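Hi C.,

You asked whether I'd gotten around to modeling the 186-residue construct. I have! Everything is below, sequence then structure, no commentary in between.
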Amino acid sequence: MNEKWHVVQTKQHFERKVAEQLTRKKIETYCPLQRKVNLFNEKRKISVEPLFDCMVFVRISESEQLMVKKISGVVNFMYWLSDIAVIKEEEIEILKHVLDEFNVLKVQQIKVNTNESPKVMKSQVLEKSGDVIEYEKSLVNVVLPSIGYLLLAQPAHKQVEIKTVTAGEAFAVNNMYETGFTKNYV
C-alpha cells in the first residue's frame, strides 16, 4: 500500500476522540499533544491539550479516505490546490521529536509552502525594547511548511537563560542564524 500522511480536520475539541476512533479501526494516527500549565486561584494545574486545534494527522492509503471521512467528529481533510494535502514523513518525525524534547511556547500560522523542507533553527530575539534586546540562546523555531505552522519551543529539561545584549550584538547574532525563510514567511 502507498500510505501517506494527511491532516484530518475535526470538530472543535474532538481531536482525541477522532484519533481514538481511527486507532480502533487500525489506522495510524498522530494527535500532537502538549502540556500546559494553567493558574487557577493561585494554584498550578497541568493539562494536556492538542498542539493544533481541530487537526489530527493520519497515515492512510487512497482507499481508506472515505472510511476516515465517515468517522464521527471528522469534518474533512485539509486540502492544498484542490487535492488532499500530503504531509511529509520528515515533518511528522520532526514534530514528534520536538514534542518529546521541547516545550512549545507559541504556535503561529505561516504561509504554506509544499516545496520547502522542515527546519529547526535557533531563535534569537525574545523582546526588543529601545536599544536593548533580550536574546534567548536555547529557544528554537521549528518550521513545518507543508501544514503552514511555525513553533517556538524551549528545551523541556533546561532552565531558560536570558541574556541582555545591545542592538549591535543582536544584529551579529541574527546574521549568524540567517535563513531567508523567516524573512519570507514570518
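If it helps when you're writing up: Residues 99 and 166 are 32 Å apart (CA to CA).

Thanks,
B.
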